[in-house]
Specification:
alpha/beta; 53% helix
Length: 531
């Protein structure tokens, strides 16, 4: 006897065996029990979610002589004939290869003949969105008012391609992606029935890789069992068959990229290539890892959503604590773009290598989030240098004097006196104000978000705020010194500034010059005299 694929062998024969579509199953069973069956159904949803299986069960149920709780009995003559594919009452049509007007006209001609036995003549049209415009138009009248003994079941993965005239004539049912838990439970039933030993972690990974498709999960499981026939199917063996990578590798890769370790990232990729892993799958799985990292960072109540083991969850939370949210979002954006580019690329490894280098060197990108990543790196270096300088000033860090055998503390240099900013320097601060805001630390960054910039007497920068307390806060004391230090460091010049208050109801442009809204030229008194 020839081998039958698992997804065909374990196709659900009754409604109760359909997994993950309870909202549809319950409705259809109630219709059959109450004898309120419709004449046209539209089943929508992604691949492998049970559309064709439910259509076949429904076709048997409406023809069954003794339905049990809305499901076909499976024992009567009609149930056996339909299940064996010998019944003239159920006609399956693939619209991908029978999509012309003539094909639909054949259906219309056949509709006029009532079934010789059984109650209903059922037409199951798969991938119905593939029908031509002429074919849809030819089907309209029959679909709207078919004979009482005819039922149409249309199935599609791309419902948006169907004409509204078709949609309005059908009862529409949307098939959901099946959850990982549901798929895993079904896979466990299958392997137990087949007498195959499979590690729980391995089943979980197959269920996740199927991406909500029960048929895909059974096909992947079939592939893994065939490769390791007669042996226990372990997690590592599943990874080997599917060309996948363990989660620990993604943790190492993220750490290398986050700390700009180009050598480490490229070396890890080389190991992946040598192991023969599928590079497209590798990129997709890394995007999934980054997504989990983002969710863990966003909330502590994400255990059910991210769906990973408890050990990996602990490691993920530790990495999330140290990671910058904007950097994670940038990584997701770049690797998602890479995922679409790499699908049909001939040189996948080169594309990935270029991306890894860009990740480690954000100055190679012009995107806004890349600029923010450059600021993050600069801030890290500034923080490290600041700790070192503080240690030197406190005498905690010794500095070796050149040419001397004795270790002596280096004298602390006096603070350099900066030149006063000229009008061009003020203009530069104004033009770069959004970037400077991103470099500020909180709470100053938050307070300065709504600040407006203007020009006062003697080339003084006016920082206008609509909060009187903030104006007073930054007009004197430590907060004033902190802002002064930041502005001076930003351009390497001493900027005279003053904070000004404006009433919320006042119009800024009527009281100040809006430097941020115009391309201004500052003219000094000396320039006026020379004119």
């Amino acid at each position: 006897m020839s081998y039958v694929a698992l997804y065909r062998k374990f196709r659900p024969p009754v409604f109760e065996d359909v997994k993950g579509q309870d909202h549809i199953v319950t409705t259809l069973k109630n219709q059959i029990k109450s004898d309120r069956v419709g004449h046209a159904y539209l089943f929508c949803g992604t691949r492998g979610t049970g559309k064709t299986s439910v259509a076949k069960i429904l076709a048997r149920a409406v023809n069954c002589e003794n339905p049990i709780d809305g499901s076909p009995c499976g024992k009567c003559e009609m149930c056996r004939e339909i299940a064996a594919g010998n019944s003239m009452n159920v006609i399956e049509i693939d619209a991908a290869s029978n999509n012309g007007v003539d094909n639909v006209r054949e259906i219309i001609e056949e509709v006029s003949y009532s079934p010789t036995k059984g109650k209903k003549k059922v037409y199951i049209i798969d991938e119905v969105h593939m029908l031509s415009t002429g074919a849809f138009n030819a089907l309209l009248k029959t679909l709207e008012e078919p004979p009482s003994y005819v039922m149409f079941i249309l199935a599609t993965t791309e419902v948006q391609k169907l004409p509204i005239t078709i949609l309005s004539r059908c009862q529409r049912y949307d098939f959901h992606r099946i959850t990982i838990d549901t798929i895993e439970a079904r896979l466990r039933e299958v392997v137990d029935a087949e007498g195959i030993k499979v590690e729980e972690k391995a089943l979980r990974y197959v269920a996740k890789t199927a991406d909500g498709s029960m048929r895909d999960s059974l096909s992947l499981l079939d592939q893994c069992i065939a490769f390791n026939y007669g042996e226990e199917l372990t997690y590592d063996k599943v990874l080997g068959v599917l060309g996948a990578v363990d989660t620990e590798v993604f943790s190492r890769l993220f750490s290398a990229l986050y700390h700009q370790d180009v050598d480490g990232a490229l070396t890890l990729l080389a190991e992946i290539v040598i192991q023969g892993r599928e590079l497209s799958q590798f990129v997709n799985d890394f995007v999934w890892y980054l997504r989990n990292l983002m969710l863990v960072q966003a909330s502590d109540q994400m255990e059910d959503v991210i769906d990973i083991s408890s050990d990996n969850l602990v490691s993920l939370k530790e990495q999330a604590k140290e990671a910058d949210p904007d950097t994670i979002l940038r990584f997701i954006r770049v690797f998602s773009e890479l995922s679409s580019q790499i699908r049909y690329a001939a040189q996948k490894r080169i594309l990935i290598e270029i991306t890894l280098i860009k990740m480690c060197k954000p100055q190679m990108e012009n995107a806004e989030d890349a600029f923010e990543d450059r600021l993050r790196i600069l801030e890290q270096h500034d923080e490290e240098n600041g700790k070192l300088l503080k240690g030197i000033q406190n005498g905690q860090v010794a500095v070796a004097a050149v040419g001397s055998a004795n270790m002596k503390a280096s004298p602390v240099r006096e603070k350099k006196v900066l030149d006063r900013a000229v009008p061009e320097d003020i203009k530069r601060v104004v033009s770069e104000w959004p970037k400077l805001l991103m470099r500020m630390e909180n709470p100053m960054k938050t307070y300065m978000q709504k600040a407006r910039l203007s020009l006062g007497n003697d080339d003084t920068l006016q920082i206008v705020l609509d909060n009187r307390q903030l104006v007073e806060k930054y007009s004197k004391g430590d907060s004033n010194d902190e802002l002064q230090q930041f502005l001076d460091d930003a351009i390497g010049k001493h900027i005279e500034f003053e904070t000004k208050f404006i009433e919320p109801q006042q119009v800024f442009e009527e009281n100040y010059v809006n430097l941020q809204a115009i391309n201004f030229d500052i003219v000094t008194e000396d320039e006026k005299e020379n004119e």
